[in-house]
């Protein structure tokens, strides 16, 4: 195993951490674990691929387009998921609706990029640098830094701003929050939008390095979920720790044993964690739906 | 069919024709004719296509594939609809089953019948393993674990080339009759027979005690435990059956199409089953078949744009959830045209005679307490909820446990019935150490009724009572599946007894109603009836009188007295002091987790300690005023 594997792991981990954060952002006010979250990763990667690799435009354009499209995707997801959930009243509604949304987006990506194996644009900054004999690609370093910044920023937003407090209140009880005059519906929409934007940025940054195929959205959702479970659903810091654990575990096992054993390791870890700690490693018990 | 203007056929039935007896008779006939017609068309399908089309095998294949999907959807319905277990593993189970058949038929050149048997076994084992891993997981996590398991099955399929053929998969899987290859037409009938078997298994299972136990666990595993049902066992059994059925569909898939590869297990392949289930109607017997049938037609219609299939199905699923959340069958059943006729409620007079089905406890050695707790200590964090409580409940008595709010009454019940682990002390049932799992305590004869109603709301009143009889049922799950003679005998007596019990409680005319449609008082009464149906030796009622009218109180009091005469020990946790004082032989008074008084109602009524606990110190009050 090379020390580069650790860096690769931290890089992949920061992508999973961002997905985990987005899952938590949507989960808190809605109590919905959004299976379609990983599709935003594909959106980010697809936009980067389209604009950087095919249209040969710059990364600034990519960032702008990604944010706009991801926000639209978030709005759309909120309608696609919350409407059926409210109208059906079945206790499976949320999971079926998110799954359906995931498959709808997935089939759209499949239709758009059916002849593309990996959505791989050129990196934002090519090349790498040496630290203590370890080669670190600039793209990896950039992604890790962005992930840390997003985490810290969201943490601050949650704790310091009025809106952040409203979100935290809604997470505790949306009914009481309505009574307190908090616009819960607006917060739900906002959380879908923020979640989609964060995930899409993760996808955009990850695409030059990680393997992102049009149909791999669910895989990102599950790894993000694993990260969220390990770190405890709800806290940005937990998501960060969980994401890093998943990323390093995945990459290290992959480089030592090889092949797709990395996925095994992650799923097996998820199973073991859930068996030993039914409510997650650091998390408060999550109520049964 | 009759129109609204023509006079209703039923005598004195108010409202529309849809409530008349004639309409219901006609509906039964029409539905029966329709089912026979559909079955007839399915049986004659190869002949029909042969006659009308040059491409007969294509159209036969469509129906056979739909039937295979229907088998898997039935399995999904059992696990999600009846068991409340959200499984995303089903396409993976189908894949695993397909591999088993593929490996056996192609690599070992075994017979296809052996392949099917192996697939059923593999499906069952995989499902049971996944369930064992996730027994403690809550609802959401269970879904996630099954999803992870699904991906693991696919990964195994991609990597384990010697058995699964890797990414390419196994091909050339064909059923043989002797040395000849079986014709597609003959295999069509094999598939149809398997679908019939799967449907009948589903029906028999759901209508038996095994199915009722699963539905009880779906509603509330605590309540199920109080009925003596082991939640873990019920889940394991049901999910195992689901796995076996899914494995069967995998075997048929491989044999029908001749190949199996990892893509079969992908979720976008699995979405068709979810759509079928939700479109047809979850938790209904026929829903999966109708849903899958509709989708098969739809997929055939858009086959020229096959690339859009997943997209269309996904949108269809979302729209179906919004427009017909209960599916075609559920919506029909809830509509005026489709709903069942229910008996009118009449407030019948209560029978004076006590039916024999009310349990009796005799031949108890003298001086042995039916239920005894000694030195029970229970802490919640730093709070001493119970601090060394002794309680002895003798058979043939009504024993009241009273005390102010927060004195530890309900905690005591939970400790005695092993819902809480106690920190110190002992619980004995008829002199023997009580078992440590809640459902085993119920088996040992101690049944509890919870403080807030814990009915199984979505099933009928009668089914609620039948669920209470689960511990008495001696037939195996297999007996239930095939409706063995012993199963039929027991089922018949159970239904008679349940109706007698309901009549005794004055609920006979509501036996076929949904439990959720009862009033609060009737619900409480039904809960007691359900508990009595489990033939307990000790019956614990936690605040049964709350919110009852005086008539209902009388009925409850009467029931308690009858049970006492029959030798049962009845434990009443109550706030209603008049009710308790009039009924109980003995009282235990708790305050802050300690027993402050015990004895006859007279003694308790005059106890200074009790007065103080409830009213404060009267002498001090007088001084102050």
From TrEMBL, chain A:
First and last residue of the signal peptide: none
Residue spans crossing the bilayer: 6-27, 34-52, 58-77, 89-109, 141-158, 187-213, 225-249, 261-282
Swiss-Prot/TrEMBL keywords: Amino-acid transport, Cell membrane, Membrane, Transmembrane, Transmembrane helix, Transport
Location within or outside the cell: Cell membrane
Coiled coil: none
InterPro entries recorded: ABC_transp_permease (IPR001851), BCAA_transport_permease (IPR052157)
Topology relative to the membrane: Multi-pass membrane protein
Pfam families hit by this protein: BPD_transp_2
Entry annotated with the keyword Protease: no
Family: Belongs to the binding-protein-dependent transport system permease family. LivHM subfamily.
Protein's recorded name: Branched-chain amino acid ABC transporter permease
Organism: Microtetraspora glauca
From TrEMBL, chain B:
Keywords, comma-separated and alphabetical: ATP-binding, Cell membrane, Membrane, Nucleotide-binding, Transmembrane, Transmembrane helix, Transport
Location(s) in or outside the cell: Cell membrane
Cited SUPFAM superfamilies: P-loop containing nucleoside triphosphate hydrolases (SSF52540)
Topological category with respect to the lipid bilayer: Multi-pass membrane protein
Superkingdom classification of source: Bacteria
PROSITE patterns reported in the protein's UniProt record: ABC_TRANSPORTER_1, ABC_TRANSPORTER_2
Molecular function terms from GO: ATP binding
Name listed for the protein in its UniProt record: Branched-chain amino acid ABC transporter ATP-binding protein/permease
Annotated InterPro entries: AAA+_ATPase (IPR003593), ABC_AA/LPS_Transport (IPR051120), ABC_transp_permease (IPR001851), ABC_transporter-like_ATP-bd (IPR003439), ABC_transporter-like_CS (IPR017871), BCA_ABC_TP_C (IPR032823), LivM-like (IPR043428), P-loop_NTPase (IPR027417)
Pfam families reported in the protein's UniProt record: ABC_tran, BCA_ABC_TP_C, BPD_transp_2
Domain ABC transporter: 371-617
């Amino acid at each position: 195993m090379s020390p580069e594997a650790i860096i690769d792991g931290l890089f992949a981990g920061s992508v999973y951490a961002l997905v985990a954060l987005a899952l938590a952002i949507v989960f808190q006010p809605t109590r919905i674990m959004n299976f379609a979250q990983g599709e935003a990763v594909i959106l980010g990667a697809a936009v980067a691929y389209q604009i950087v690799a095919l249209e040969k435009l710059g990364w600034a354009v990519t960032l702008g387009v990604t944010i706009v499209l991801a926000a639209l995707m978030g709005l759309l997801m909120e309608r696609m998921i919350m409407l059926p959930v409210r109208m059906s009243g079945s206790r499976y509604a949320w999971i079926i609706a998110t799954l359906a949304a995931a498959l709808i987006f997935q089939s759209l990506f499949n239709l758009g990029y059916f002849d593309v194996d990996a959505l791989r644009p050129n990196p934002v900054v090519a090349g790498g640098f040496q630290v203590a004999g370890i080669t670190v690609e600039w793209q990896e370093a950039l992604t890790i830094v962005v992930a840390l910044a997003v985490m810290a920023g969201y943490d601050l937003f949650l704790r310091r701003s009025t809106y952040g407090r409203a979100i935290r209140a809604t997470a505790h009880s949306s009914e009481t929050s309505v009574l307190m005059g908090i616009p819960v519906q607006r917060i739900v929409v906002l959380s879908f939008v923020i979640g989609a934007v964060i995930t899409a940025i993760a996808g955009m940054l990850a695409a030059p390095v990680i393997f992102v195929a049009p149909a791999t959205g669910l895989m990102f959702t599950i790894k993000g979920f694993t990260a969220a479970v390990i770190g405890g659903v709800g806290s940005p810091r937990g998501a960060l720790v969980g994401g890093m654990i998943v990323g390093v575990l995945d990459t290290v096992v992959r480089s030592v044993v090889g092949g797709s054993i990395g996925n095994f390791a992650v799923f097996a870890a998820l199973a073991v964690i859930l068996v030993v700690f039914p409510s997650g490693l650091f998390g408060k018990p999550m109520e049964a739906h | 069919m009759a129109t609204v203007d023509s006079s209703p056929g039923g005598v004195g039935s108010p409202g529309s024709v849809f409530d008349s007896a004639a309409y219901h008779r006609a509906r039964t006939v029409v539905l029966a004719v329709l089912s026979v017609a559909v079955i007839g068309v399915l049986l004659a399908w190869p002949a029909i296509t042969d006659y009308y089309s040059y491409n007969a095998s294509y159209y036969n294949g469509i129906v056979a594939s739909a039937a295979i999907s229907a088998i898997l959807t039935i399995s999904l319905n059992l696990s999600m609809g009846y068991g409340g277990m959200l499984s995303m593993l089903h396409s993976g189970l189908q894949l695993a089953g397909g591999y088993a058949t593929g490996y056996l038929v192609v690599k070992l050149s075994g017979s296809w019948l052996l392949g099917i048997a192996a697939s059923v076994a593999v499906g069952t084992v995989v499902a049971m393993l996944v369930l064992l891993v996730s027994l403690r997981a809550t609802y959401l996590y269970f879904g996630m674990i099954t999803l992870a398991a699904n991906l693991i099955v696919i990964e195994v399929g991609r990597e384990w080339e010697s058995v699964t053929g890797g990414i390419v998969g196994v091909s050339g899987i064909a059923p043989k009759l002797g040395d000849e290859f079986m014709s597609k037409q003959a295999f069509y009938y094999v598939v149809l027979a398997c679908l019939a078997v799967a449907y009948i298994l589903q029906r028999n299972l759901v209508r038996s005690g095994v199915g009722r136990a699963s539905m009880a666990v779906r509603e509330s595993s605590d309540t199920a435990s109080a009925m003596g049902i082991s939640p873990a066992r019920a889940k394991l059994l049901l999910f195992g059956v689901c796995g076996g059925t899914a494995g069967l569909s995998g075997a048929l898939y491989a044999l029908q199409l001749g190949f199996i590869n990892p893509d079969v297990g992908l979720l976008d392949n699995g979405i068709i089953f979810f759509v079928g289930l939700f479109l047809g109607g979850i938790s209904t017997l026929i829903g999966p078949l109708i849903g899958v049938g509709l989708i098969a037609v739809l997929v055939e219609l858009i086959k020229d744009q096959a690339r859009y299939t997943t997209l269309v199905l996904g949108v269809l699923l979302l729209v179906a959830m919004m427009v017909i959340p209960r599916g075609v069958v559920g919506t029909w059943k809830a509509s005026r045209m489709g709903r069942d006729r229910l008996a009118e409620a009449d407030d019948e007079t209560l029978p004076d005679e006590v039916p024999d089905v009310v349990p009796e406890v005799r031949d108890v050695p003298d001086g042995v307490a039916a239920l005894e707790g000694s030195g029970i200590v229970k802490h919640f964090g730093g709070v001493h909820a119970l601090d060394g409580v002794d309680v002895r409940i003798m058979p043939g008595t009504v024993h009241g446990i009273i005390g102010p709010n927060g004195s530890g009454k309900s905690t005591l019940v939970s400790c005695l019935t092993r819902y809480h682990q106690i920190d110190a002390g002992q619980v004995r049932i008829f002199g023997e150490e009580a078992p440590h799992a809640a459902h085993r305590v119920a088996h040992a004869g101690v049944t509890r009724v919870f403080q807030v109603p814990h009915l199984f709301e979505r099933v009928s009143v009668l089914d609620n009572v039948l669920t209470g009889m689960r511990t008495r049922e001696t037939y195996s799950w297999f007996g239930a599946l095939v409706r063995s003679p012993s199963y039929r005998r027991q089922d018949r007596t159970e239904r008679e007894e349940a109706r007698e019990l309901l009549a005794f409680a004055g609920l006979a005319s509501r036996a076929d109603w949904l439990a959720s449609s009862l009033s609060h008082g009737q619900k409480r009464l039904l809960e007691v009836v359900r508990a009595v149906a489990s033939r307990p030796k000790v019956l614990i009622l936690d605040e049964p009188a709350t919110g009852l009218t005086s008539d209902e109180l009388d009925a409850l009091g009467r029931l308690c007295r009858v049970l006492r005469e029959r030798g049962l020990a009845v434990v009443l946790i109550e706030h209603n002091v008049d009710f308790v004082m009039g009924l109980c032989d003995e009282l235990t008074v708790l305050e802050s987790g300690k027993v402050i008084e015990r004895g006859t109602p007279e003694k308790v009524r005059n106890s200074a300690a009790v007065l103080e606990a409830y009213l404060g110190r009267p002498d001090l009050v007088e001084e102050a005023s």
